[in-house]
Input
Amino acid sequence: MVNYQVNFLFISGAEIAVILFIVVMVFGADKIPEMARGLGKGMRTLKNATNDIKQEISNNATKHGIDTDVTSSINEEITKVKDGLEDFTGSVKRKF
Output
């Protein structure tokens, strides 16, 4: 039986520890929380901008009479196909 190990971005725990050690050495322990806050604010701003753009597109589509339900039905079909593939690959993985 083959043992599968899931790694985050193909990086092991030891490699993550080395990267964190280097970050602490380069930036110092007092700057890391500040950097994390800045990164969090940037990600929040990006998420808000993305949501605003989605809302604007949806509003304009509705305003001009474009049917937006087509995308939801496409997403449903993609989800069905993805689930089917996961069921198939899951059975294949269990056999090996």
Q: What stands out?
A: The chain has a mean pLDDT of 80. The CA atoms of residues 22 and 28 lie 9 Å apart. The chain has two domains: 1-65, 68-96. Helices lie at 13-27, 32-63, 69-95.
